[in-house]
Amino acid sequence: MIKRKFGKATFIAVVFLLLVSAVLAGCSDSGGSSSASGGDGEWAGQKIKVQLIGDFAMETKTDPITGESVKGVEVLKEEFEKQHPGATVEFILMPWEGYTEKTQAMLTSGEADVYQMPGTADFAPQGLIEPLQPYIEEDDEFNLDIFVENQVEGWKALGPDDDELQIYGLPFLGDARFIAYDKQLFDEWGVEYLSEYPTMEEIKEKAEQMTGKNPVTGEQNYGIWFRGDWSSAFTLINTAEGQNGAWGEGFAWDEVKFNFNSPEMVNGLNWLLDMQELAPDGLTSNQGNEKWLTEENNIAIMLNQGPGDTVKPAYSQGLGDRIGIAQEFKNDEGKGGLFAGSPITIAKDSENKDLAWEWLKFATSEFAQKYVFEEMGLVPSINSALEWDSVKEQDLMLPVFEAMSTPWTPRYPWGSSQPRFILTSEVEAALTGERTAEEALEKAQKESTEWLENR
């Protein structure tokens, strides 16, 4: 055996090299951040960073609702890099909590090329995201007709130099709001199911009929439930739309006029106060609905529901056939309800905008959209999804797509700004008896207008 004798300096050098190697290894993750390029090919040397919000994960995980394995976004990475030889995509994944502030910080510091961005209307005026119309016009292989009706229009926004609404994001995750109901309770009470487009009068009449002791089970039932805190402003706005009213008008802040104290809004809030009498306690603290989507459910009608609240949980509990979906209140033109979801955008300061545009097209392709639905249980935004076997197997998805095509568009410009929180606070004040509907909405109108004048 040959023995080697190392000096102190040599030993320190070896340790230093090992530490450097460990640090470099620690910088590498499954998103490919240690790779400068994907090898040879048309896109050699080009890399984009893609920010995604929600329950996305890099690798396979277990869905907490269904208990099934869910593939990670590594599937998207592999396919995109396969389709774009030489390119590298890296993901930055974040939860919904605090996403607005985190996105603002990322945009300011130029951390990503592509963003999932529900707040397009907030970021476009800052000049932080790229207008997409030039890419759409120059790409002969891309057509906006692939998207569900109203999805493109809903995400239009105004940039700092725009006189008219422009496309700054492509629909990535679809979403909708609707009215859900329990068919079993309707059957037990002998009440006809909700019509496809119910009115406020119909909802009130049927909710009244199903509040009390269930004639079959003897258990206490409640005719209705709605969230009295976080989403209450949107629930109220929809009642005004059902009366041919509106939240106000305008999109650019210097043209916006609020209509929070209109007769339709006052009538709508008084209607919600009437509905509160038919609901379990706890609306303003998001309570009372604990038995919804269980065998022991005691609530007949649920306002302002979304597919994430309803579709996957219903099927995972074996209750898919028990739940029905009706549309939110519409005006005489068939328009109404909250426009929701997530578009995908390109950062203005991206150094690889052409590759970023390729990602936008990929993210709205059938491959990526099937991943969104079949793995993540989220709602696709493209028309062809209606023909997928996986969608046809879930009858509840059909009215969801209908709801996606008829909301108020473009998205309420104040939906993530202070007026939304002012209105929410005043709805709560009315529901808790602190103010009458008239007093609450006069206050919401005054404070929102003052905020608009001083912003």
Write the layout of secondary structure elements.
Blueprint (H helix, E strand, L loop, with lengths): L7 H20 L19 E7 L7 E2 L6 E2 L3 H10 L4 E7 L4 H11 L4 E3 L3 H4 L9 H6 L12 H4 L15 E5 L3 E5 H7 L10 H10 L2 E2 L6 E6 L6 H10 L6 E2 L7 E2 L4 H14 L22 E7 L1 H10 L6 E5 L13 E6 L6 H11 L2 H10 L13 H4 L4 H8 L13 H14 L5 H18 L1
Parallel strand pairs: 1-4, 1-5, 9-12
Antiparallel strand pairs: 2-3, 5-14, 6-14, 7-12, 7-13, 8-9, 10-11
What does this structure look like?
The chain is of the alpha+beta class and about 450 residues long. It has 17 helices and 14 strands. The protein has helices spanning about 10-25, 75-85, 100-110, 120-125, 135-140, 150-155, 185-190, 200-210, 230-240, 265-275, 305-315, 355-365, 365-375, 390, 395-405, 420-430, 435-455; strands spanning about 45-55, 60, 70, 90-95, 115, 170-175, 180, 210-215, 220-225, 250, 255-260, 300-305, 325, 340-345. The strands form four sheets. A five-stranded mixed sheet has the order 4-1-5-14-6, with helices on one face. Helix 9 (about 230-240) packs across helix 10 (about 265-275), helix 9 crosses helix 16 (about 420-430) and helix 16 packs antiparallel against helix 17 (about 435-455).
